[in-house]
Design a protein that fits this description.
By secondary structure, this protein is mainly alpha-helical. It contains 18 helices and no strands. Helix 7 packs antiparallel against helix 15 and helix 13 runs antiparallel to helix 14 (about 305-340). It binds 4-fluoro-L-phenylalanine.
């Protein structure tokens, strides 16, 4: 179970926090979170989301990092090493599948973000809400362009992984994250001072408690929390396997959760004030196009809007790429570790599989009818993938991981790892309660309710 020298380590604890935050901060925060808030009833969703993040996801993140650091293995190997001869490795295998599945739709949206760098910077997308909306549907309805953008995104991710990237990821993330935060702050300041922004702020910060009766709010908030924090699929476990033994796991996890959550919340302070400043805006109806149809309105009205718009989509694309890298790393490291493939062969094979699975998501936005409205599901293929992976596979993976840490590996052994070398670990009894009881029970309840509501 000890580390092989060739596996490598982060250069420092800060390096780990930045790489993991780079994985966590991505389309999930800026595209996914506002979209889900819009569909899930505004501030009510935000409250449920925050509860999921702090009571379910943060304790689980600590457990995932500990599993990775203890075993120094990728997910399948980590579960197999701590429960030899049992089937727990299947939880790792589900994570490997999730890496491929999530990347297949993620790369489609990342491709849109890349194209919008150009559209925003050159002013190609402009005019009133109707024109901006029409531009988006025509653009996403063009199957050839969407597929070309997917190739670009997957190709860039594969190239980064092939290049032995650890220092690359660390360096790029370190340099760009502060710009992303500053730009988001500047845009939020502009957004909240727009005429009519008050209604958007009210929608975002005043919860309507009657919505708590809707189980859909809980399933989407839980799925979104897992997705945003890159949890439930062994990604954080893999990154944790490169963490030094003297580094505090709890402290690192708190940083990652705080960074990820503040960036998601900040995105909402931009989108909703801008959205509500447009007459007739309906957040529930916007769907996956929300940021692509709302934000160009802000850029059109700001002095220097082309520059801000171009920079915004550029940073969004960079944030997306640091996440696609971590998504691809999970299946790739598995093929290298378990199948003994070379890194090049693993990257080529997994990237190819992701592309094939991405085709229906890329063509499901108007280009091909059966993918745009999948018969029997009443939604497009892309939305179906979001629901299957985010709302189902990640929570299932998370629930089983919590059971594994709390009951199979055992809290005592986990705590030993968490407190190694005298590391800071607050409230071990509370953490034990959450990981053994609250996390698995809450996730299982939400999943059962989801299944009951869906079938
Ligand atoms: N956390 C990323 C985001 O919010 O965009 C998406 C993601 C990356 C999910 C890595 C899962 C993962 F393993």
């Amino acid at each position: 179970m000890s580390s092989t020298p060739s596996r490598g380590m982060w250069s420092s604890r800060a390096g780990f926090i930045l790489a993991a935050a780079g994985s966590a901060v991505g389309l999930g925060n800026i595209w996914g979170f506002p979209t889900q808030v819009g569909q899930g009833g505004g501030a009510t969703f935000v409250v449920v989301y925050l509860a999921c993040v702090f009571l379910i996801c943060a304790p689980l993140m600590v457990g995932e990092i500990a599993l990775g650091r203890r075993t120094r293995l990728s997910p399948v190997g980590a579960f197999a090493a701590l429960a030899p001869g049992r089937r727990w490795w299947l939880v790792g295998a589900l994570g490997v599948a999730a890496g491929v599945g999530i990347l297949s739709f993620y790369s489609v949206i990342a491709g849109w973000a890349v194209a919008y760098i150009w559209f925003a910077a050159t002013g190609a997308v402009s005019g009133g809400p109707d024109e901006i909306g029409r531009f988006f549907s025509e653009f996403t309805g063009n199957g050839v362009v969407s597929l070309a953008l997917v190739v670009l995104v997957i190709g860039t991710t594969a190239a980064v992984l092939l290049g032995g990237v650890r220092t690359g990821i660390e360096r790029v993330t370190k340099a760009l994250m502060p710009f992303l935060i500053l730009l988001l702050l500047a845009l939020a300041l502009r957004a909240v001072t727009l005429p009519g922004a008050g209604a958007g702020l009210a929608y975002y910060v005043s919860p309507d408690l009657s919505r708590l009766a809707d189980v859909g709010v809980f399933t989407s908030a839980l799925g979104q929390a897992f997705f945003s924090l890159s949890l439930g699929m062994g990604c954080i476990l893999t990154y944790g396997s490169y963490l030094g033994r003297e580094d505090s796991i709890a402290g690192s996890a708190l940083w990652i959760v705080a960074l990820d959550t503040s960036i998601a919340l900040l995105a909402g302070f931009i989108i909703f004030p801008v959205g509500f400043s447009i007459a007739g805006f309906d957040p529930t109806a916007s769907g996956p196009g929300l940021i692509f149809t709302v934000l160009p309105r802000l850029f059109a009205e700001m002095p220097g809007g082309h520059l801000f718009g171009g920079a915004f989509f550029l940073l969004l694309s960079v944030a997306a790429i640091t996440s696609t890298i971590s998504l691809l790393e999970v299946p790739v490291s598995h093929c290298v570790d378990a199948l003994g493939w070379s890194r090049t062969k693993a990257v080529a094979a997994v990237a190819g599989a992701v592309f094939v699975l991405a085709v229906p998501s890329a063509l499901g936005n108007g280009a091909v009818a059966v993918f745009t409205n999948v018969p029997g599901f009443g939604m497009g293929f892309l939305d179906l993938m979001v629901a299957a992976w985010n709302e189902f596979a990640l929570p299932v993976g998370g629930c089983l991981t919590a059971i594994f840490v709390g009951r199979v590996w055992g809290v005592d052994r986990a705590l030993e790892e968490l407190r190694a070398e005298g590391a800071w670990f607050p409230a071990p009894a509370f953490w034990t309660l959450l990981i053994r009881w609250a996390c698995p029970a809450a996730i299982a309840l939400v999943l059962v309710a989801w299944l009951a509501a869906t079938f």
